[in-house]
Every structure is written in structure tokens, then in C-alpha cells.
Amino acid sequence: MAVTQPAPTAATTAHEGILRRQALRESAARTYARSLPIVPVRARGLTIEGADGRRYLDCLSGAGTLALGHNHPVVLEAVRKVLDSGAPLHVLDLATPVKDAFTTELFATLPPALAADARIQFCGPAGTDAVEAALKLVRTATGRTGMLAFTGAYHGMTAGALDVSGGATDTRVTRLPFPSDYRCPFGVGGDRGAELAARWTESLLDDPKSGTPSPAGMILEPVQGEGGVVPAPDAWLRRMRALTEARSIPLIADEVQTGVGRTGAFWAVGHSGVVPDVMVMSKAIGGSLPLAVVVYRSALDAWPPGAHAGTFRGNQLAMAAGAATLAFVRENRLAERASALGARMLARLQGLAASHPCVGDARGRGLMIGVELVDPDTPSAGSSAPAPAPGLAAAVRDACLRRGLIVELGGRQSAVVRLLPPLTLTDEQAEAVLDRFADALAAAERAVGDPPARAAGAAPPRAR
User: Fold this and answer.
1) What's the pLDDT tens digit per position in 59-98?
2) Is 148 exposed, middle or buried (CB count within 10 Å of its CB: 0-12, 13-18, 19+)?
3) How far apart are CA 346 and CA 418, in angstroms?
4) By the 8 A CB rule, do 51 and 15 touch?
């Protein structure tokens, strides 16, 4: 008996037409659009509505950009206020009341020891440009060229930012081991693994035969995001600060994704009490609009006028939205809220391992969470943990989308399912997210033997 398919609606036809035209017109480098075939038309808070009428819970949040979710009232009000005031929207790097208010609010959130002696450089609108500025800054200030960076890192898509990311081969960059409990580069994990990673770094810096000349700086993420949500141990991070400070090596903290309360502290370096010499910031500081800055100790302010410039450094709407976001997160203690709610979500995700052997590890800090999926029967080369299961991870992501939940992948072989919900997430919404994820995980496990499920997946998206 033939099955009659329902007639397509006007909304469905429009949705499919937009996706078809995107595939024909846009470049092969597009990423999120490949794994998330949706056409957002409205959004509020955690929820996105597509052109086909479907609703989704958004746990991607613009790759961590939307600290307050979509179209938060305080952000919309801040933007409307600037638009209604008649203020110029494009001002290069000139001083404006909006810029002054943003800078004042931003400095109020910084580690006090940095805020008391800080300078700020407004960069191009993407975090990768702020990374470029930070590298240029420390090279100018020290007169040196080499950099220290870490395995698993991700700092952006421009040439210099890629050079200090995990997969690069620039000979000026010395790659150091980043500690990980689950996939420890030394095979031991825990405090012992972090200690060995620190000793490795100290040995390279102090051994004249190591081939590592005194570098211009060290750049790290307090929690590696695209690398699979790998938090830096607090003691190890303090050790990196001590090592660099003793050797006059500027320490750069890339807080592009971890900042503005995401990890349970306003800035993720706050967990360890570390005060870096340079902080790179973007994503959430613009309140959903493009904005990127570098904040650094005044002693490093040695570059000449025009050493790092850009046409779109003066985004007034982003500064207004960003100031409103920073103030709302601070005044409503959303970092503390992220810490408590994130811990509860993580505990439930860790509990899935008992009935789902494919859950190798669930980890994170605050509302920056990753679930690494593995093949429990296949050993991993160079690690005591099982082999990553990228096909299963892609199947889980797709099953989540069918259930109205948006997540994305990262980590080794894109086998880590990442959750970056807005900091305004309610308890009820958190339960709905976890219920849909657990159901999608079970469905993907049942289907994983199918060749399409094994083959599903794409390279991890990179947004910066």
C-alpha cells in the first residue's frame, strides 16, 4: 500500500528554497550551515524559530557569543537608545560617550591588579583580530618573535592566530603539552599529569640546548573550547603564571569564549587567581554584536600609532549592547548562577556513562560543557582512553536537531558534543536540554551501525 506524503506547506517550501540557494551561492568553506540545516527567522532567549515553523533550544549560542541569549530586553533597549539618539554609528577609533561607558564597565569586571594599570586596544570586530593584536603587542614590547602555545588550542582563523593554534607548524611557535585528565599526554592524568606538563615547559625554557629561545609570550585558553572543552587545572595555570613571570615572558589569556561569566567566574582566569599580562576578549563582550579588544599592562604599551588598526573598531551599537550585557551579568551574578547550574547539568551528564559506555567523559566549567563520545571496544593510539567516536558524535548532534536541540562538535576528531547555553538558562530549560540530549544519545546509539550514521559528520566549525 502506497504511503501518501503530506503536501509541503508554504513555510516548508520557503525554508527549502533558502537552503538550496545558500548551497548554490555560498562557498565550500561554510561550516555551521552544513551541520545545522535550519533557517532562523525569530529568536528569544534560548529559543530559535525556523522558517519552517519548527522551534529549537539553542545550546550553541553563537559559539558562546550570546551570554544573555537571543534578543535580551536589556540588549535591545541599549541598541534602540543609541539609534534613537542620533549618535554616529561609525567613528573609527574616536572617543564617544558610548565607548567611554563600555570601557568603564569592562574595566570594572577585570582582575583588580590588571584594571589598575591597564590599557585597551579596540581591534577589528572578530576575536581572531584581537589575537593578532596580542601577538603583535608582545613581540613589539619584548623585541622577540617566538611564541609558546599549546596542543589542542584554537585562537582564530587568520594566519597568526592559526600559527598558535593546535594544528599549526610555524617554526616560531613552540608547542607545549596542555594537561588533560581524560587524554593526558603523559598517560597519567590528574595532578601528576599537570605537574609533568609544567615540568616539560620549565625544562624547555631553562635548557639552553632545548632549541627554544626566550619567547615573546605565552598564549593559552583557561578552558580549551574548540579543543573539546578541556579546563586548565588551576594549580597548573598558576604554575604557568609563575614560570612566565620569573622569565619576563608576557602571559596572554585568550578569554574570547570563556569570558563574561561563561565558566562560573566573570573571567575564567579568576578560578585560579591568575592575573595575565594580556587578555584577549570578544564574543559575549559585544552583547551579540561584533566587538573585540585586547587589554594589557601599561608596561607593554610600546607600539607606535597605527601599529594595529582597522576600519570597524568603533562599533557603537556593539559597545552599547556590550556594556548592557556586562552590567547585567555582573549585577545579576550570572557567573555564580552558571557555576551552580552547570555543576548540576554536568553531574547528570556524567551519570549517563553508567548506562551508555560510549560516554567516555563529561567535563567542563560552568555553562561550558563537553561530552566526549568514544568506541569503548577500540583502544586509542597514544592514550589510555578509548578511541574517539566522531561518527557517533555526529549522529548525536543530528538526533538532537531532530528533537529541537542545537549543539555542535569539537575536540579530537570532532567527537566531543559541546553545550554552550546562555547564562539566562532556567532550571526548567536545563532539564529540557538534558532530556532531549539523553533521548538523542540513545537513538544515535541504536542507529550507529548504519553506514550513514558512521559517515555523518563534518570538520569542527571554527568561529572567531
Assistant:
1) 999 999 999 999 999 999 999 999 999 999 999 999 999 9
2) buried
3) 12
4) yes
- What pLDDT is attached to residue 126? 92
Q: Are 409 and 424 members of one domain?
A: yes
CA distances, 300 to each of 110, 141, 204, 243, 245 (Å): 17, 5, 24, 18, 14
Which residue, 312, 331, 350, sits at the end of a domain?
A: 331
Domain containing 50 equals 10-64+335-455
CATH number of the domain that residue 315 is part of: 3.40.640.10
Domain count of the chain? 2
Looking at 331, 363, 380, the residue that finishes a domain is 331
Residues 147-204 pLDDT 10s: 999 999 999 888 888 888 876 666 688 999 999 999 998 988 899 999 999 999 999 9
| pLDDT at residue 295 in the model | 98
Same domain, 412 and 280: no
What is the grid cell recorded at 223? 578552558
CATH number at residue 39: 3.90.1150.10
Contacts of 323 (CB under 8 A, 6+ apart): 78, 98, 101, 102, 105, 106, 287
- Is residue 1, in this structure, part of any structural domain at all? no
- Please check the confidence at residue 452 and state whether its pLDDT lies above 70: no
Return the closest-CA partner of residue 137 out of 306, 300, 316, 295.
300
d(C-alpha 340, C-alpha 211), whole Å: 45
Report the DSSP pairing between strands 40-44 and 293-297: unpaired
